[in-house]
């Protein structure tokens, strides 16, 4: 809105929103619900921008050209600077796959589709969120997607003299209903989809419409207590969201009402309400609000690049230093770039064109980096190459198992979706790999053998779900696993699929001790999984499943291998004189963590079952290594890289020759 209508308390509310997000990203344990700051931003944005549109439409002064020119001057300068800085930093420190991903995200951020790209990327093996420097641009994508359609809709409604208030109610109700429904069926989609977030902007738009047509009277003393209570209630809602919600909450869904309603009540209460006047309109909060946009843009890349370089969680003091740096960069961006462009240069059309060309240019560079697979000729990649042997995977053609009538006979679709057949011609043997995500990480060695020896491989993998009869989870860190791991039926269906494949060898593998020690399971319907239920499910389920498989074919059980304390990295940044020793854990610590599951394995004495212990090549008497004999073993803290699986090729081929 114009200067006459400037409300410092709105800048204070912006400050509350951005500080919540920043502290959540830096200190998630202290601010578990800080992510709701984005929802507060959405309401504020809907209020301010819709208010401008409403007034210009009423005065007959609305222009699409002027509207989008304002958006360019507001959004592009700081965004371009952060994208450029990320590209430069990434060129120096990121490995090829990391820089390729950054390039894709630069292009998506410049095109305001980062939310859609992240939605498509979400998956079990997707790079950790902390290691995506431009992850936070998803919210900017949602916002700009809203402003592609919203001015057009309002313009049409105004031209045809339709009821804008009624349209607001209808659009808000539809978007909110979709948000609630989708949160319970596909939380990732609900989080990133613009359609499930538009209702928050529309609440802000309703506030702007209401402020124009039915404002609270400032000079009516009877209204003051109402305003105060509205602002207090709004603050309580926001604080409740910050303290009650966390990453495990079904968010956005109905929980998003807490920040959205809280922000709307504070805005509606007006600048004279007690919370607005004394908390939000003070100088510190207003200052943070003025730099809130560049602060939002700068803080996350700094934290993310720090974590990438450290290759582990950052210490508290390091995070504090990075936040101070983010504040300094944000202030400089606001004073030296944002204010001059929005104030002194606001009347020059050439500024909009220059900013547009710069944004297209940085987006094009990001796409080029992505197409070039991270530009492997960069110094950091070359310096790190000696510790990153490349495995050229040989694999036969593959197709989904549901297209094979023999495999699919009598098998429910839920099991077939988790299966792929790798085969060509008339294979001499059939190998079945069955497990959780570990089956995917171990596949390269088996697929290479299949190509060389003319074997068929049936790969059946259900990430984050144990391949143990009747075992089911009741808490889902990997949301997609809920579809197949909540009822304990999938394992029996998969055994039917394995039987149909008539295998010569079944390789059975999983993060066994992970389920025993952290990701609890149960085999009892209606029971919440805990450590006691897990012991019972594993003690009964592992031997039963193993012997059931042995009745079909000979079984190879891959036992546990170590979980590293942090993700190993071969990174060597010569110009920073930066390198880091590969992580290790003590052998006694590993043996202790696997003792319970190993005792179950030892209880099964059956000549049809053979055990392969990957730890033999990873550990010595004292330590378990993430890198050994020049070979990097780990993709993350647990999953094995292709070059590591190839270290076991001779042993696996020897097992196949025993038939």
Helix and strand arrangement:
Layout: H1 8-26, H2 37-58, H3 64-93, H4 96-110, H5 114-121, H6 138-159, H7 164-185, H8 187-192, H9 198-213, H10 224-244, H11 257-269, H12 274-280, H13 283-290, H14 292-310, H15 316-344, H16 349-371, H17 379-384, E1 398-400, H18 405-408, H19 413-416, E2 419-422, E3 429-435, H20 437-453, E4 455-461, H21 482-485, H22 490-501, E5 505-509, H23 512-517, H24 531-550, E6 554-558, E7 572-573, E8 578-579, E9 584-586, H25 587-602, E10 609-612, H26 615-618, E11 623-625, E12 627-628, E13 631-632, H27 642-645, H28 649-657
Parallel strand pairs: 3-4, 3-5, 5-6, 6-10
Antiparallel strand pairs: 1-2, 2-4, 7-8, 9-11, 12-13
Main attributes?
659 residues, alpha/beta, Rossmann fold, seven-stranded mixed sheet, two-stranded antiparallel sheet, elongated
Notes on the protein architecture:
The strands form 4 sheets. The protein has a 7-stranded mixed sheet, with helices on both faces. It has a two-stranded antiparallel ribbon with strand order 7-8. A two-stranded antiparallel sheet has the order 9-11. It is elongated, with a radius of gyration of 28 Å. The protein contains 28 helices and 13 strands. The relative contact order is 0.10. Strand 7 (572-573) and strand 8 form a beta hairpin. The mean pLDDT is 91. It is α/β, with parallel strands linked by helices. It has 2 domains: 3-377, no CATH class; 398-657, SGNH hydrolase (Rossmann fold, 3-Layer(aba) Sandwich). The N and C termini lie far apart (79 Å). Helix 1 crosses helix 12, helix 1 (8-26) packs parallel to helix 14 and helix 2 crosses helix 11.
């Amino acid at each position: 809105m114009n200067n006459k209508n400037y409300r410092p308390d709105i800048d204070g509310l912006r400050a509350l929103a951005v500080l919540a997000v920043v502290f959540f990203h830096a200190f998630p344990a202290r601010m578990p619900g800080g992510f709701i700051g984005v929802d507060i931003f959405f309401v504020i944005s809907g209020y301010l921008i819709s208010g401008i549109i409403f007034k210009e439409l009423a005065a007959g002064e609305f222009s699409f050209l002027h509207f989008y020119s304002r958006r360019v001057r507001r959004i592009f300068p700081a965004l371009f600077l952060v994208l450029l800085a990320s590209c430069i930093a990434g060129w120096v420190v990121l490995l090829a796959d990391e820089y390729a991903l950054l390039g894709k995200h630069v292009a998506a951020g410049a095109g305001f589709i980062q939310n859609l790209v992240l939605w498509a990327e979400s998956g079990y093996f997707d790079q950790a969120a902390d290691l995506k420097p431009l992850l936070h641009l998803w919210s900017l994508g949602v916002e700009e997607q809203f402003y592609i359609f919203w001015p057009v809709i309002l313009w049409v409604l105004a031209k045809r003299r339709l009821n804008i208030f009624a349209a607001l109610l209808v659009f808000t109700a539809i978007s909110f209903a979709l948000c609630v429904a989708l949160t319970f069926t596909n939380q990732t989609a609900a989080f990133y989809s613009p359609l499930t977030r538009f209702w928050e902007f529309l609440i802000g738009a309703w506030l702007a419409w209401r402020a124009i047509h039915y404002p609270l009277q400032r000079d009516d003393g009877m209204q003051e207590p109402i305003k105060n209570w509205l602002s207090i209630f709004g603050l309580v809602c926001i604080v409740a969201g910050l303290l009650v919600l966390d990453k495990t909450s079904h968010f956005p869904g109905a929980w998003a009402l807490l920040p959205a309603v809280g922000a709307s009540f504070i805005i509606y209460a007006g600048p004279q309400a007690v919370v607005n006047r004394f908390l939000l309109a003070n100088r510190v909060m207003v200052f943070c609000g003025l730099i809130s946009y560049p602060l939002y843009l700068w803080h996350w890349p700094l934290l993310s690049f720090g974590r990438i370089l450290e290759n582990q969680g950052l210490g508290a003091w390091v995070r504090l230093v990075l936040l101070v740096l983010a504040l300094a960069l944000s202030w400089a961006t606001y004073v030296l770039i944002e204010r001059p462009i929005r104030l002194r240069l606001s009347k020059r059309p050439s500024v909009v064109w220059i900013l547009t060309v710069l944004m297209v240019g940085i987006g094009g560079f990001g796409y080029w980096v992505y197409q070039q697979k991270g530009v492997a000729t960069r110094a950091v990649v070359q310096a790190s190459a000696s510790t990153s042997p490349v495995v050229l995977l040989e694999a036969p053609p593959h197709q989904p198992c549901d297209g094979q009538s023999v495999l699919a006979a009598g098998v429910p679709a839920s099991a077939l979706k988790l299966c792929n057949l790798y085969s060509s011609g008339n294979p001499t043997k059939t190998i079945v790999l069955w497990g959780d995500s570990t089956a995917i990480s171990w596949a390269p060695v088996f697929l290479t053998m299949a190509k060389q020896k003319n074997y068929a491989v049936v790969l059946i993998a259900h990430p984050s779900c144990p391949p143990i009869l009747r075992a089911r989870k009741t808490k889902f860190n990997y949301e997609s696993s809920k579809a197949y791991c909540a009822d304990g039926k999938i394992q029996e269906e998969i055994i039917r699929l394995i039987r149909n494949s008539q295998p010569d060898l079944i390789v059975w593998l999983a993060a066994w001790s992970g389920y025993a020690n952290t990701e609890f399971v149960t085999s009892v319907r209606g029971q919440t999984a805990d450590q006691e239920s897990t012991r019972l499910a594993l003690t009964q389920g592992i031997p039963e499943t193993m012997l059931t498989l042995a009745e079909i074919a000979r079984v190879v059980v891959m036992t546990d291998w170590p979980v590293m304390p942090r993700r190993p990295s071969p990174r060597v940044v010569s110009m920073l004189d930066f390198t880091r020793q590969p992580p290790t854990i003590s052998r006694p610590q590993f043996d202790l963590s696997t003792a319970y599951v190993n005792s179950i394995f030892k209880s099964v004495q059956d000549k049809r079952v053979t055990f392969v212990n990957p730890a033999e090549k990873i550990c010595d008497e004292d330590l378990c290594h993430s890198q050994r004999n020049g070979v990097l073993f780990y993709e993350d803290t647990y999953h094995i890289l292709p070059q590591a699986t190839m270290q076991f090729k001779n042993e696996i081929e020897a097992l196949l020759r025993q038939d």
